[in-house]
């Protein structure tokens, strides 16, 4: 800490950048091993442990022999600050000493017990210079990257259902409270942590090595999050391709399904009176006559058991796309269609990431903005449909009594962690590519507020279509509301089949889901890749190869989700990736920064 105080005149001087490149002066070692630190007229000193460095005269000799290693005409204030931040936190050689003579920074490598030669030291310095960390090439790259990372599928699919389930508009009270007192502070903390250290989610914790496990936990969470999240994108890719038809397959029970009866002929609430719930809470059955075409008390016999009529899109997703087995441990087949869609998703991801942040930082301009355009178009169309007002009413209908329930507050806090993507390591990774002195407060507030507005707006759009679906089927809104994948692949797809030019609305919707999913996946994969390249810095020159290996491994593990039991595994990963682990990481993160460091 005192080293930075000693260097304060250097950091604050207006003429520092002009004095950084200068001739080295002779350095001799005195009895106390004093390293002189000077800039202009300001001079300070600090004592160095003589066990960790060679004779300073030898260091001066190496400087004279290899001046190009220690003098860089492009060295500026930002490089100096970055070096100081590395000094503060330490790098791979924890005992590195930095000598500053006449404003010029040089690095004395730690001489380990295995007697590393001076030539090896010079080679290491060459490697460090050749594998400098990338930086964003554009002014708004970081903003759009964090916006796309935070505003994902959870904002469009998960938040509207949670709001409906937890008291409608009342849910916004705990949500806003946790946003300002939990979400935004943690978001701001992680962004500044990554920017100050210029390290990924794992190596930034060198300021308190005992907490390095936090970074490892973040990387693990991002790893498993990416595996199941890309499968959701794969589902969207498959539906997107299938939407290029004159008639959508899930509009009616066609040759692809073994439907007992068409839902469109059973649209009144009375059709559901004589039913009972099956023990697994997934299917409803009704007793119908062998040749019955309608559900009524006159034709209920002790004949064949039939499944309660459901939306054709429900049958299509669960029985045709997923071919769901009886349970998570019943794995018998793998669906080649899902494998190809998952493979295509990973190929697209690799193409976007293989060029580093200078390329992906430009791609996110499109992937983070265009979903808003599609969402607005879908919203305008949905608000013109009959029954939409009932859907919006159920979405925002306030129930103040729900505030007494613990689950409401737990869901609000959990959604804040998930929707802002804090404690997953992605924010630290993305901000590590910032310039050292870049302002982050504005980006933090803009991304956080935009996330909330997007979530609320998406709720109005989704529930407009749910109200319309309830209207055309004669059901209550509570009977058609579904969460997460059910909303994306069952309810909404069927609603658009009743609209004119149905394939167009289906294409727009699933294209929006693909873009939202890719944005979130980009940062998560980058988190894993940076964890590896920060640990083995020479791999930074092979960033494309490391990215390819990471994508290949994740694709291989994702094949499990392409089996007939894959959706059970996806649900398992979704439920246990994050949640309480995110709370614990966030708490320890605050303790580390506030009380340990």
From TrEMBL:
It comes from the Eukaryota. Keywords: Membrane, Metal-binding, Sodium, Transmembrane, Transmembrane helix, Transport. The chain crosses the membrane at residues 142-161, 167-189, 210-242, 336-357, 369-396, 416-433, 445-466, 507-532, 544-570, 576-596. It is a multi-pass membrane protein. It is found in: Membrane. GO terms for molecular function: glycine:sodium symporter activity; metal ion binding. It holds the Pfam family SNF. Its main location: membrane. PROSITE patterns: NA_NEUROTRAN_SYMP_3. The keyword Transmembrane applies. GO terms for cellular component: plasma membrane. InterPro entries: Na/ntran_symport, SNS_sf. This is Transporter. It comes from Rotaria sordida.
